[in-house]
Design brief:
Elements lengths: L1 H11 L16 H9 L5 H7 L6 H11 L2 H4 L4 H14 L3 H14 L5 E2 L5 E3 L4 H7 L2 H7 L6 E5 L2 H6 L4 E2 L5 H14 L2 H4 L3 E2 L7 E11 L5 E12 L5 E4 L8 E2 L12 H14 L1
Parallel strand pairs: 3-4
Antiparallel strand pairs: 1-2, 2-3, 5-9, 6-7, 7-8
Length: 278
């Protein structure tokens, strides 16, 4: 079969592999493979079905039957490269992970000691964090939490070059325990909103975040994605934006009585109606 595919490939190009089931004209390739696997037919009979004469007439017939499918079904490697580049640009860099952990850990009354060369030392874990990690389901998912971490880094490359350092990030029991503690104690805080400043002076409105999930038949999460929408202050324009847009903004030190009041439910309905209409 591969010998025949290579013959067709020389005539049509690499795209033949994207339409492998269609280049064998009037042959049910799936059925042939099933019959061969199940020994339902003699292998010699199956090979006779694949004994196709790859001449000019046959190739022209393939092109005619496929039409533009060779062009439209081929893998768009350019788009894949663009997606990969965008993923690299939007990934959570170690500095952000470390900054979040430090603030959250200190809020839990933990103590962090700065070491030379940018490493951290965590000599003890707060009781509240240890209590989170003491759950059997947590241990099964992330492992056991140590009582102390003498040398910590949030950069995978640095950890690779320093085997004596512990790489802490998503999936590590310490990081996950802190995440759970934050969620339990401050889960309502995002509904109050936060104020940021746009250094470019272009944005003047609201950014709303939505956590979208897709579940499978077993009730497990099969896919998850964060969505963000920007709404101008007048509510006239709503556009989907990259969730990473917040990285380009600066935190605003605003007193509580100076915060901008807004009706969250009204904003939600506005975005939902806009998404439906688009």
């Amino acid at each position: 079969m591969f010998d025949k595919i290579n013959e067709i490939k020389r005539a049509l190009g690499d795209n033949v592999f994207d339409v492998i089931g269609e280049v064998f004209q009037e042959k049910n390739l799936f059925q042939l493979l099933m019959e061969a696997a199940a020994n339902a037919r003699d292998i010699d009979d199956i090979l006779k079905d694949l004994d196709i004469k790859i001449d000019e007439e046959y190739i022209n017939g393939v092109k005619e039957n496929l039409g533009e499918s060779l062009a439209t079904r081929c893998i768009d490697y350019t788009r894949i490269r663009e997606m990969a580049k965008r993923a690299r640009e939007q990934r959570l860099i170690p500095e952000y992970t470390e900054s979040f952990f430090k603030k959250a850990f200190l809020m839990a009354e933990g103590k962090i000691r700065e070491l030379k060369d940018g490493f951290l030392a965590i000599d003890s874990i707060p009781y509240e964090i240890r209590r989170v990690a003491d759950d059997d389901i947590f241990k099964k998912s992330y492992g056991w939490l140590q009582r102390r971490y003498r040398k910590v880094t949030f950069d995978k490359e640095i950890a690779f070059k320093n085997p004596d350092a512990t790489f802490v990030s998503f999936g590590h029991p310490l990081f996950e325990a802190v995440l759970i503690w934050i969620e339990r104690n401050f889960q309502m805080a995002p509904l109050n909103g936060a104020i940021f400043l746009d250094p470019d002076g272009k944005l003047d409105g609201y950014i709303l975040y939505y956590d979208g999930e897709i579940g499978d038949g077993n009730g497990e999460v099969a896919g998850r994605r964060l969505f963000a929408f920007y709404m101008d202050k007048d509510g006239r324009e709503i556009d989907e934006v990259s969730p990473s847009i917040i990285w380009d903004l600066a935190g605003a030190d605003v007193k509580e009585d100076e915060r901008v009041s807004m009706d969250i439910e009204v904003l939600k309905r506005g975005v939902s109606n806009s998404v439906i209409s688009k």
